[in-house]
Amino acid sequence: MADQQLADDQRSNWERMLAGDPYCADDPEFTPRLERASQLADRYHRQKMAGDADEARETLVALLGTVGEGAVIRSPLFVDLGERITIGPRTFVNCNLTALDIAPITIGADCQIGPNVQLLTPTHPIEPQPRRDKIEGAEPITIGDNVWLGGGVTVCPGVSIGDDSVVGAGSVVTRDIPAGVVAVGNPARVIRKVES
């Protein structure tokens, strides 16, 4: 049934995904890329646990699209593809980051990402039949420079968070957050500006 919904589009599901258009998520074309990412993330975790810092860094660079100089990513790390994630220089990512990068995820420089943060780009139809047909989409997430996401923050598809902003622990970010503010809650809302 999914093929019927996308029948007029001659692109592959991978091409549709890259373009940010709806695609069939259970296409076997995705399997090798998803498995590669899972294997690299697992290897990274085991190398970190064994204290193999140089090998772990090489694995991380192979897994992610870009890892800035001086960036620290604690393990374990969970991704869909990995290759669509950019992490800026000097950013610190605590353990258990889940970054589902069907669309690009960009994390700026000098960020602090707390433990158990979720960056979720996939979207799913509200209508039941397209969900049964495994049709999905994705919207990119952009996190500016010097942003602090507290532990357990969830950032939803299509959200941008401006430079120097702070998102309180456990918040669910469903809309863009401007630069230089503190936002908390579910859904997250701005409660004040960041003071110098």
Keywords:
single chain; 196 residues; alpha/beta; UDP N-Acetylglucosamine Acyltransferase, domain 1; seven-stranded mixed beta sheet; five-stranded parallel beta sheet; globular
What is the compact description of this entry?
By secondary structure, the protein is an alpha/beta fold.
Question: In words, what does this structure look like?
Answer:
Strand 19 (181-185) and strand 20 (188-193) form a beta hairpin. The protein has a seven-stranded mixed sheet, with no helix packed on it. It is globular, with a radius of gyration of 17 Å. The protein has a single domain (2-191), classed as UDP N-Acetylglucosamine Acyltransferase, domain 1 (3 Solenoid), CATH 2.160.10.10. The model has no long low-confidence stretch (mean pLDDT 95). The protein contains five helices and 20 strands. The chain has helices at 2-5, 13-19, 31-50, 53-63, 128-132, and strands at residues 23-24, 66-67, 72-73, 77-79, 85-87, 92-93, 97-100, 105-107, 112-113, 118-120, 122-123, 135-138, 141-143, 148-149, 154-155, 160-161, 166-167, 172-173, 181-185, 188-193. Helix 3 (31-50) packs antiparallel against helix 4. The protein is 24% helix and 29% strand. By secondary structure, it is α/β, with parallel strands linked by helices.
